[in-house]
Amino acid sequence: MLVSLTRVITFAAQNFWRNFWLSLVTISIIALSFLSINIFILANALVDNAIAAVEQKVNVTVNFKVSAQEKDMFSIRDRLTAMPEVSGVDYISKQAALERFRDKHTRENDTGITDSLNELETNPLNASLIVRTHSVDQYPAVLKFLDQGEFTSIIEKNSYDDRTNLIDKISKLKEKIKQGGIIINIFFALIALLIVYNTIKITIYTRKDEIRIMKLVGATNWFIRLPLILESVFYSVIAITISILVLFPMLGVIQPYADRLFDGQAFDVLGFFSQNFLTIFGYQLLASMALNILSSFIAMGRYLKV
Amino acid sequence: MILLENISKIYRPDITALKSVNLSVEPGEFVFLVGQSGAGKSTLLKLLNAEERPTRGRIVIGGWDITNIRRQETATLRRQIGVVFQDFKLLPKKTVFENVAFALEVCGEPNHKINTIVPQVLRIVGLEEKMKRFPVQLSGGEQQRVAIARALVHRPKLLIADEPTGDLDVVTAKSIVDILSKINEFGTTLLVVTHNRDIVNMLKRRVVTLEDGTISSDKKTGKYFI
């Protein structure tokens, strides 16, 4: 058993080295497939991050009527805060709203607006609540809560209707991107699968005479199969190593562009791959090994029938 | 030792390579199988090596009925038979030593035994000095001698050779036949397919002639007369 195992490893290493150019071509193609998959993973992560950034900017503002009592407003705030979908509620008092308004227009040197405000004796702005949820598709629950009849006397009618439309659009867009992503992912995985399968098939095809000779000399199918299968495992391990060595410097180049894309909300591409290193590359290696083994197994079958 | 009873081989759709062939070869015999191209000589050898299955009839080798041998059993059969092919069939990416050693490795022989036996066999065929070379670095005659060494190394009781001198010059062909004769003297049964009239006539061994898939003559000390 030990002798056979040693021979399998020796033959695999010998085959690999003595068919150097063939091994190199096979590894290059598999490494390129890995690289394309990882670039695709990066694109997916960037899209997810972009959606998350948009989601963060979405909120629902509830404007209260002038007649609304502070204790009623606080009651709504507390009930909203208690909802599991809600991630945060900010109460903006009439005074705070006025200060914000004044600050904004002073910064923009809009003296006409600030002068008009000074002319008014009373604060024309209403108190409001700014509500944020964990995810954009959780807003309908908040809107449903606010639409209850009990609040009509204190909440301005249609104060959040515009947001409803926007939230609905973002929600639908997110769903479409998700569905499209699944289709593209499957399509891409199929292409990578076919490329790797055919590469291994061609590699085995170039060795068909050798396989036939081994059979004629009395080798069992497994004695022929195992070194070739082990060789295909070598291909996977070396190809993933090469793809990692190429990918990480590439990420360093991409990082400034990613920063610019998200305008201040930096997405750490290097960190993303480093933190998910084992998941991303571990699964790729396992999948590639399984695919290579299966491809070798299938491709060899016909040449073993001697 | 070898028994072919009423053997026929028909390739689809209707090419008949062998028709009701009956042949018996005793242990230690040296048999030449001669005939024109397409007479069925190579098909007969392929049946013995289980590369092909007969359409009809029965084949027994050393008491083992291999007529309907299962695919998984072919390795066991081939480890007991030495085969020399006309085109040598050496593994191109293995050295001379490794090519010969391969026949022992498939049998699961330990390395120390392989390291002892292989140089001995290579000495017999005169290639001891070239054991680290690859097949491409050898002449045709040398490659054929490697093939013979590989066929011999596990000491088979039966050695079959398909045109072992086919592509070789007269002198090299003679040296190959000398080696085969020597092997036969050690008790190995030999079944040799050849077109080489001089060698058949010189050795004066049993000659079985095939014509259109049937045995047209079988002489104990025959001559090549086609």
Overall tally of domains of chain A: 2
CATH superfamily of the largest domain in chain B: P-loop containing nucleotide triphosphate hydrolases
Strand order of the largest sheet of chain B: 6-7-8-3-9-10
Strand content of chain B: 25-35%
Helix/strand structural class of chain B: alpha/beta
Distance between the termini of chain B: 28 Å
SSE string of chain A, helices as H and strands as E: HHEHEHHEHHHHHH
Alpha-beta content class of chain A: mainly alpha
How many runs of DSSP E, i.e. beta strands of chain B?
A: 10
At the third CATH level, what is the topology name of the largest domain in chain B? Rossmann fold
Large-scale geometry of chain B? globular
Overall pLDDT score of chain B: 89
Strand elements of chain A, count: 3
What's the helical proportion of residues of chain A? Answer: over 70%
Instruction: Classify the oligomer.
Output: heterodimer
Domain unit count of chain B: 2
Q: Summarize the biggest pleated sheet of chain B.
A: 6 strands, mixed
CATH architecture of the largest domain in chain B: 3-Layer(aba) Sandwich
Question: How many H/I helices of chain B?
Answer: 7
Strand percent estimate of chain A: 5-15%
